[in-house]
Structure formats: C-alpha cells, structure tokens
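Pipeline run #58 for the internal structure catalog. This entry was flagged by the ingest filter as a single-chain record with no existing model, so it goes straight to prediction. Upstream metadata was stripped on purpose; only the residue string is passed forward. Reviewer on rotation: M.T. Logging verbosity set to normal.
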Amino acid sequence: MWLEEVEKMTKKDLRALINHSFELAEEPGRERGPLYEKAAFYMRELEHRRDSWVSIRDFILEIIVIALIGVEIGLAIKQGTDEDKLMDKQNGILRNMQTSSSATAETLKTLVATMGTMNSSASATADTLKSLRSTTVAMNNDVHGQLILLYDPSLHLVYDTGSKKITLSNNGRTNIKLDGTKYEITPAEMFAKPFLLAPGAAYTWSINPIYQDLFSKVAKGMMLERSFDLYIRNELDKKYLVHSRLVGIYEGDTFTIHTQVQSIDATDWTIPTTP
C-alpha cells in the first residue's frame, strides 16, 4: 500500500483494516507477526491524525493570542492619536489666551502644566508600543522555532543477523517518507513511490547484496566499514540526507553488521548519478 492510498483513507476505513488484520491473525495457519504489524501501523496512523489535530489546535490558539496582541497595539495607537488631537486644541487655547490681560496668567500656568503631563503620557505610550512590538517579534520567532522542531526527523537503523534484513524506525513526531538508498559502492536505488513511516512505525527490507559484499571481504578478526545513505522527506516535503555507516564484523563465529546513524542533514538532494 502506497502513501497516496493511506492518506485517502478515512478513520472508518483504518478501523476496518485494523479489525480485518486481527481477524486474519486468528485464522489457523496464518503467520501472525506481519498481520499484527499491519494492524499496529494503521493504529499508529489513527493516533497520528488525532495528535495532528491537537497540534493544529495549539497553533490556532497561538495565532489568536498574537491577534489579541495586535488589537492591543491598535488601541494604543488610537489612544496616542486622540492625545495628539487634544494637544493641538490646547495649543490653540494657549495662543488665544496670550493676547488676554494679566488676569489670565494663572490659567496659562495651569495649561502649561497640563501640557507637560500630556507629553509625559505620550512618551509612555510610545515606550509601550515599542515593548509590544518586541514581544510580538519574540513570540513569532518562538512559534516558528517550535514548528520547525515538530517536523525534525529522528530515525533508528537496526540490522537483524537472522533474517539478513535492515529496519528503519521513525522516532520523530510526524510522518516521514523514504525515497531511496545509496550504498557506498553501488548506484543509488530510488523507489518508484516513497514509503510512508508514521511516528513509531518501521520499515524492514532485505539487504542481501550488501551482506554478500561485506561477508566476502571480511575475515575473522577484521572488519570493513561502508557508507549507507538514506534519502528522506518530512511531512512538509523538506528533504534530508541521512548519513549512516555499516560495519561488517565477526562476533565469535557469526558474521553480523553493525549500523550507526551519523547525521541527518537538511539538503535539497536530487537523484544521484552512478559513481
């Protein structure tokens, strides 16, 4: 089943597939492990959709908070405009009173004092606007940083000696897509359609040609290390290149392969050419 088919399924469809997998697993002669893994995959997809809704809800609440801050900034600007108009009226009164007799001197002093108070209020309003602007910028940066962290991939690569297969696990909080692989001495293998891994899900495939290469070149007491890269995308279709190492080595009389993910780099990769 491909990515597009899973994305089109409703919750009712996913529940039906889960029940069907459990029913098949109870039938005599059935291999239960793959059926249980299939049911677990659909259950994790249901859980992921519920978690995605929670993330969207939290994001909407943060947007509402930012909007309220914007409203507060608008009210502060309006207050400053109203005070400027009031100051203009007071200045007109002052010019008229300057032509009056000395009996109005005390009134002029009072008006001058009032103007000083209003200037202080206008200055305080400007400082408030600057503070609100700094707070808004900081909140925007924080929300952006949280969203980036939410979609960062986290992977685990494990080799199984018995089956000679390798398993890629998604330890992140959102879906990832596996587009292809590149072994050190062979051309890259890009899949016709990407494999979708939900949070907590895993994909297992055979690496027999890689096993044969390492097995044929490693004697007891020695080891051989090769690079093994994975081409992936996160849920936002941002591309990453996963750099890992495969080490062929004997443990007693048993030949095995150790795996290590060295780095996950965001890079706009293209389909590699043959070395």
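catalog note: The chain has a mean pLDDT of 83.
catalog note: Helices lie at 3-8, 11-26, 32-97, 105-150, 208-217.
status: ready for reviewer M.T.
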